[in-house]
Amino acid sequence: xxxxxxxxxxxxxxxxxxxxxxxxxxxxxxxxxxxxxxxxxxxxxxxxxxxxxxxxxxxxxxxxxxxxxxxxxxxxxxxxxxxxxxxxxxxxxxxxxxxxxxxxxxxxxxxxxxxxxxxxxxx
Length: 123
Description:
The protein has 6 helices and no strands. The protein has helices at about 5-20, 25-45, 45-80, 90, 95-100, 105-120. The longest helix is centred in the middle third of the chain and has 36 residues, at about 45-80.
């Protein structure tokens, strides 16, 4: 008998947890935003790898998270003034943006950074 694939196990336990526990919508939105960061990392891996090669991990991470923080603050300020800053998260995962609001972009970047770091650690 073959072993059950890891993706099937993860899906099963996620289903059980979602059925058994009342997961807050804000947490679901944060997980969706984090996952979108992982997906975006697959698309732009070469660009961030070049930044990593030129400046190292600390330099790349500080600038990457700094950009996310600037975006988050700008989005917050503009949304208070009646405008919404157009962004990838708003158009690609509107459910996450609807629930997580201003922090969806920052959570997305954190997901991207985690995927990149894990990719570098894995070789």
